[in-house]
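Hi C.,

You asked whether I'd gotten around to modeling the 186-residue construct. I have! Everything is below, sequence then structure, no commentary in between.
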Amino acid sequence: MKTDPVLYKGRPGDRRIDKEERCYALLDSLGIEYYRADHEHAGTIEDCHDVEKLLGAEICKNLLLTNRQMTEVYLLLMPGDKPFRTRLLSKQIGTARLSFASGEQMLEYLDITPGSVSVLGLMNDRERKVHLLIDRDLLKAEYFACHPCINTSTLRLRTEDVINKLIPAMGHEAVYVELPWEVNEA
């Protein structure tokens, strides 16, 4: 039986898994206000539409990518409903053909499992091996929605807090890219 998501302000009162708890601790330590929706497992953008309505924010697409040689790792944040083609991004960042990272690589670099990839996973990248890429269209929205390293909750944060407080606190710098809304397959 499916249960509807519920909106809360701030961290949960009950104990959660360690990586989720670390997300709340980081946000609280930075004084970042956030709203949280707890919900059933949501492994795809399509699974998140009810949560988006509740939060009043679109959940961004978070893709962990590697170059052909698997020597570079990239976390791409982009609008959830925007199409993605690896060749267009590869050309912009000047790297060999990109492919999607494996579940093992997600765990190794961000301590995240497939379906839970999030900018908050960068707090687990202490060696700064992951390059952060942000599609400029995300900056147009007042709010930014992402998972707290687990896909049974989703957070709504102010976009300016993500860009100006959260990302710098995790020791990462963003490279901004511009991906097209329409993709010609020719």
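If it helps when you're writing up: The helical segments are 18-29, 49-55, 86-93, 103-110, 159-169.

Thanks,
B.
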